[in-house]
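User: My collaborator sent over this chain with a note saying "see what the structure looks like." That's all I know about it. Can you take a look?
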Amino acid sequence: MSLGNIFDISGSGMNAQSIRLNTTASNLANAQSVSSSLEETYRARKPIFQNIQSDYMDRGMMPVDMDHDVGNGVKVAAIIEKDGPLDVRYEPTHPFADEEGYVYYPNVNVVEEMADMMSASRSFTVNVEVFNTAKTMMQKTLTMGK
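Assistant: Without extra context I'll predict from the sequence alone. Here is the result:
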């Protein structure tokens, strides 16, 4: 793996964690939104990450053993809606209550979302540190001949 690949890998990690942080923010923003039907109710969203496999080791085009393939970063394969049950409450005086008096709240667990937010933030920070360390190493390599 060349030093240049590290920038691609850490950059893809920062991008993926940004998307994770955005979905978490969306979930938290909609945690207390209400609706009068199951179909209109917001459902928590989660990104699904996928490893980006490189077809060639280094950029020197050396074939990679398929049993020991080298990762080349991460991408967001999809953003899915959680299947968990919605929070249905009997509130007949609520303006969004249906004809039976029920109001539907999203399946957002605020504690879980806060943990995801902290994890995404820390993962992003670690990727920034990897990026900065690789940059420093590359700068020191360039100054070795002086």
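A starting point for your reply to your collaborator: The helical segments are 3-29, 110-142.
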